[in-house]
Amino acid sequence: MSRKRYTQAINEALHEEMERDPKTILFGEDVALAVFGDTRGLLDKFGPKRVRNTPICEATIAGMAVGAAAAGYRVIAHLLFSNFIYTGFDAIANQMAKLRLMTGGQIDLPITVLAVYGGGASQAAQHSDANHPVLMNLGGIDVLVPATPADAKGMLKTAIRSNRPSFFLEASGLGAVGGEVPDGEHLVPLGKASVARDGMDVTLISVGSMIRATQNAAKKLAEAGVDAEIIDVRSLVPLDERTIIKSVMKTGRTVIIDEARDMCSAASHIAAVIADKGFAGLRAPVRRVTVNNSSMPYAPNAEAAIFPNADDIVRAATSICQPETAA
Amino acid sequence: MATPILTQDQSVTWQTAQLSMLERMLLIRHAESRLARVAKEVGLPGGVHLSIGQEATAVGICSQLEEDDWMTSTHRGHGHFLAKGGDVNAMFAEIWGKSSGICKGMGGSMHVADFSKGIIGANGIVGGGLAIATGAALAAQLDGNGRAAVCFFGDGAANQGVFMECLNVASIWNLPAIFVCENNGLSEFTVSSTVTAGKLSDRARAFDMPVSVVDGNDVRAIAQAARNAVERCRRSEGPSYIEASTYRIQGHLEAEDMILGGGTYRTNDEVERWRKDDRDPIARFRDCLNNEGVCDHTLFATMTADAEAAVEAAVAFAEQGDPADTKLAYALMGVGEEA
Question: Which cofactor is recorded for it (chain A) (predicted)?
Fold first, then answer.
């Protein structure tokens, strides 16, 4: 094990996978200088054929990823901010997600799209979306939201080797966060949630970027005598329903924490899964801590008022841990 | 597919190449005429967009390609599919929605693809093939084996922003891409000139690549333009733009009269003018070959009958096919794989 930052872990995964397979190529916006640090050093190491700065043209970046993958390459494309998914969306929703189906399975599309998502840093409305739900709804695309450096590295390596298109969403608030990463070859399977904290009283289901607020909430709950279990949903598609339901059956109480807007969020989908498959174990209503259908305002105090935090989670958990509200 | 010789040296190779182009044009014409009939009289599962009148562009361009060159197509893609060597039986079975279809019935008319022939596929999104072809051209450049990536698109697609993006990327990266604009003057149900500023070819010129504007109903002119562009790709000299002026005889899609509720965007006289032998790409090529002594009336009649027979066999193949697998969509999308 060695201690690494989240972005550093991603950078290592990219270096290792490009080293491993010479047919792996990477292109996107500002990948040469690496605004976020994740692609740093790749151009120097692998050269301008395999690592390319593109113009600012998300529609073409996403479409080229499809074409180059269809023509035999393993493609990593960088869209910078996940808000720019919207400008590239035809190639993502109409081509990338559908080409394997439409061609009757003639081809695989080994594509990994990188983008940084989420708010909390006064980046304002067009650079702060947590828009994994629009990707979850496409079908045919894996949606990954790792929350720790170890998972960031291990899941990215697995995603790059996968023959399905995937979006690897980097939580903007976690980029500088450190954590232990296993040395040597480290692969994390997709579609497996991790139990980040064992507990008996309430299940806190954290989606990607929400892990720190959730961990802080668990500490506060512990001080109040509530023993919370944390499920880190690091993969949204595929979704590890089994681990979620198992925890819900154990605690009977659930709060789902998701930085997406509430309507049709990952949280609302997970709540639906729990209603379908975990109903017998529920001892209280399922609560969601999400963004209440607003875009992120710029002013730090205004953003903080909207952004899910530990107190919101504690409040939600406490509301369902009172015996009298459990019906 | 052997590259035909374009000069009139009257060699057997040259004659064979000419007849091969005519044969493909006839196959496309008869296949699509038959589809029009089926759509009208019996009905097909989904809509079909036919390229009758535009056969020369598909055949002229593809006559200069090898099987492993890449090609993306449009929603009006049957001609491109057949011209690039796609199988008419498998295409019809696909349009009929059968398991024996080239895409196992999962794509239909708008998504016919055959990767074994370099056919990345037709596309239901106007302009959807542009970036995909550009990506395939990037792959071809990295492979370094002289492969080309051809993108067919229409004048309607040239008004999509991604058109400019792709010309830019292809030019700045010197990609082996050939952008083929089939300019039929129509953007779905709208006359393109009413929604388009300037000349489309000037847009390509702005990105610093060779531009050739040709008579889109003259298969030889198109083949010559294609040859120049393909040779540039083979020599790693970068992208080219070819604009072929042509005309679509059929509606945007079959049964468009019902959709438009009596409205029209063109006159019957206009359509009839383009049907005449002096404009129809097949009649023009037929007469030309007749004058050159390559294809007389008897041979033409035989080739026509052969095309009709191939199309009837394709109808029978499609009708006899098994229905599509109802579980295949889930399997291909990976649904149900999660824990």
Answer: thiamine diphosphate
